[in-house]
């Protein structure tokens, strides 16, 4: 019985040591650097306004007011504790009752039989990055917090909190990542071909 109890004790000590080591290593390792994407709002259109197009971002006191003021190319949503109206249209436009935050554009041109307007909220811890992908239309960004990076065949570009970035044309391979020292929180705003997959895997050399 004595050898058996000694063996059991050794096994118990070994398991305790392994558990303690696991707790120590998990505590010292960085959090999972996942790039999270959350759809916010979207709509489909048959036609776009003529001429060069810009995304206009405005804040409203309430979501009901933003929805009431929304035009055919507008999306209203509450994000990050604020009410937003995202409107696709010509430069220097305005919406009664709204406070303009920024305009993003001009956007690369797009032509389709039907369009999808969409706003996503995305981001992650420093170093988090998306899979390499494409969209069937241009993407624009507004950075709420942190620093945004985007890698494409055209190079790498960055945008700080409170600034914007205009993406490239349809089907451009891209990787989006959190480039700063604090968590990235950004709005990704799209006008794409509604009859194609919203996102497709791609590669970057």
UniProtKB/TrEMBL annotation:
Transmembrane segments: none annotated. The keyword Cell inner membrane does not apply. Keywords: Signal. SUPFAM superfamilies: RmlC-like cupins. Gene3D superfamilies: Jelly Rolls. Residues 1-31 form the signal peptide. This is Cupin domain-containing protein.
């Amino acid at each position: 019985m004595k050898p058996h109890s000694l063996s059991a004790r050794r096994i118990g000590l070994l398991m305790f040591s392994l558990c303690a080591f696991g707790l120590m290593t998990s505590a010292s390792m960085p959090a999972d650097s996942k790039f999270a994407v959350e759809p916010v709002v979207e709509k489909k259109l048959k036609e776009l306004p003529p001429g060069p197009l810009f995304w206009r971002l405005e804040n409203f006191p309430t979501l009901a007011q933003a929805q009431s003021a929304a035009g055919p190319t507008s999306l209203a949503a509450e994000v990050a504790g604020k009410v937003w109206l995202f409107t696709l249209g010509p430069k220097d436009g305005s919406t009664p009752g709204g406070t303009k935050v920024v305009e993003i554009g001009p956007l690369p041109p797009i032509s389709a039989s039907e369009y999808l307007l969409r706003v996503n909220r995305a981001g992650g811890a420093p170093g988090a990055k998306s899979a390499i992908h494409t969209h069937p239309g241009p993407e624009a960004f507004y950075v709420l917090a942190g620093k945004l990076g985007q890698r494409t065949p055209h190079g790498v570009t960055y945008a700080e909190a409170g600034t914007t970035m205009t993406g490239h044309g349809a089907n451009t391979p891209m990787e989006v990542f959190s480039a700063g020292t604090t968590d990235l929180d950004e709005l990704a705003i799209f006008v794409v071909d509604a009859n194609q997959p919203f996102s497709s895997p791609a590669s970057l050399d």
